[in-house]
Amino acid sequence: MAVRGRRGRSRARTGKPESPMTTIEWLPKTRLGQMVKKGEISTMSDALNSGLPLREPEIIDILLPEVEDDVIDVKMVQRMTDSGRRIKFVITVAVGNKDGFIGLGQAKGKEVGSSIKKAIDNAKLNIIEIRRGCGSWECGCKKPHTVPFAVNGKSGSVEVTFKPAPHGIGLATGDVAKKILELAGVRDCWAFTKGQTKTIVNYAKAVFDALKKNAEMRITQNEIKKISIVSGSIGLPPEEPKPAEIEV
Length: 248
Hints:
The protein folds into 2 domains: about 30-130, 2-Layer Sandwich (Double Stranded RNA Binding Domain); about 130-230, Ribosomal Protein S5, domain 2. It is built from 8 helices and 10 strands. Strands 1-2-3-4 form a 4-stranded antiparallel β-sheet. Strands 6-7-9-8 form a 4-stranded mixed β-sheet. Helices cover about 35% and strands about 25% of the residues.
């Protein structure tokens, strides 16, 4: 035991210092990635409108460095085999920059950490650009704070309907929809749901389906001007803090 201790002390004195971790340079494999690295495409809107497939998460890291992620659901799946019980984790993650871009992804793996990282990358590859406006007839502030029109989304038995809300209402939705809408940059919204909303994954997919229809719906230029519809990032100011309640 003493010899082992002396050897350990000797290594501690004479050992070479660890070399700093070197950063790995990203080598794009797709045409879109090459255009982003060269600077030919500098915004996420241009990347999505280019018509080229989005297959590298590093593109989002460069064009949307402020993107945030939120784990929506972690589910453990067990399966009995001849060799014994096998356990895997199914992770659902939403990513967004809180200013017009949102993505949803899933991944399955044996370890939670690596599965979360894979789910984040899949969510980045599914990122979309949504529209916002002032579609509530009760408001008229002409600021892009809510969905511009009613949209429906469905996944499994869950159906979700989002309707424009006046400024200051907040997100009158469930917890899952609130997380996704916050990451998308929607601050006020009415939500109506049907079906088994306790199924978190289907609920999240229904919300994302509604936001996809929000981005794909055709609208005229008159409607865009009338309710001040904007698409993608617009650099919204931070939310105003709520006034503190004064106890009497």
